Amino acid sequence: MNECNIVLIKKPSSISNDISSFRPISILQTIFKIYTGTLLERIQDKIENCVSSSQAGFFRKRNTLNQILQFCTIIQTSREYKKDLYAIFIDFKKAFDSVNHSWLLYSLAINDFDEELVKRIEALYRSPKATFSTGINNSYTTIEVKSGIRQGDTLSPKLFILLLEIILKNAQHDLDDCFKNEESNLVKIMIDGTPTVSFKLEFADDIVIYTYDQKLTEKIAQVIEYHARKTGLELNKDKTKMMATQYKKKLDNPIYEVVSNYK
Q1: Do 232 and 100 form a contact (C-beta atoms < 8 A)?
Q2: What is the β-pairing status of strands 140-144 and 187-191?
Q3: Start and end of every Reverse transcriptase domain (predicted)?
Q4: Which carries the bigger pLDDT value, residue 158 or residue 263?
Q5: CB of 95 within 8 A of CB of 160?
Q6: How big is the CA angle at 37 (ends 34 and 39), to the nearest 5 degrees?
Q7: 35-40 — which CB contacts under 8 Å span 24+ positions?
Q8: How far is 128 from 144, CA to CA, in rounded Å?
């Protein structure tokens, strides 16, 4: 049951025939998908409770529209008060294909998921194999998959998001003292009538971070990158960009490419 066939699907926005322009989709046995769907039903509510409301990917009653509206409100507020806002859009290179399996299981264990369920999920990632076409004389090869999640399985995206939550929480823990000293540069939004610090929004593996200070925003991105690298994730430097609304200061040697729009 730990074996699958992989087909490459070209990404809609890509025009290149380079291998990075294709997404590997796992063609799984029906019994496997039923089994993982059953596991997901048993852990879905707990995962949703473990993941911050700033994450809108793959959850019921959460969607990207809410994130867009919130970010637009933050931009509008910064303009009204003529405050410089600095945002960095973080992109990971082959995020779903790179995560370390041991970290996926750790994210379940540290959140006190049922031990028996964790063992069942662990078994799914014990020496998994994938078969794909070599493109030569209709031949195929089988390899052991040592990292990544199965794209095509309903359980996989939830496991990834749970891991990403661990990365972001670890990063925030490292930044706690910095945030105390930089409180005036942090964005605050109203939640249930209470001003609450907000510095990130996520939709699956896409993250935007923002503050009123360029260096602070860059530091947050670097700390997130540090913790992500531990789990096998690598920042895509070509697609990670900065946007800024400037009224008072000029950009000071930005470490990420500055753009006027981002898709």
Answers
A1: yes
A2: unpaired
A3: 1-263
A4: 158
A5: yes
A6: 115
A7: 35/1, 36/124, 36/153, 36/154, 36/155, 36/156, 37/154, 37/155, 39/117, 39/120, 39/121, 39/155, 40/154, 40/155, 40/158
A8: 6
Point out which residues pair with 100 in neighbouring strands: 147
Which of 205, 112, 216, 195 has its CA nearest to residue 156? 205
What are the sequence ranges of the domains in the chain? 31-129+141-258
Q: Is 143 exposed, middle or buried (0-12, 13-18, 19+ CB in 10 A)?
A: exposed
Helix or strand or coil: residue 244?
strand
* DSSP collapsed to 3 states, 128-151: CEEEEECCCCCCEEEEECCECCCC
User: Distance between CA atoms of 89 and 208, rounded to whole angstroms?
Assistant: 4
pLDDT digits (tens, 9 = 90+) for 208-262: 999 999 999 999 999 999 999 999 999 999 999 999 987 667 888 999 999 988 8
Pairing of strands 241-245, 129-133: unpaired
pTM: 0.88
Q: Strand, coil or helix: what is 156?
A: helix
Q: What is the pLDDT of residue 135?
A: 63
> Per-residue pLDDT averaged across 36-62, rounded?
92
In 3D space, the residue among 99, 106, 134 whose CA is nearest the CA of residue 121 turns out to be 106
Find the DSSP H helices in the chain.
Answer: 30-50, 64-80, 95-98, 101-109, 115-124, 155-181, 214-230
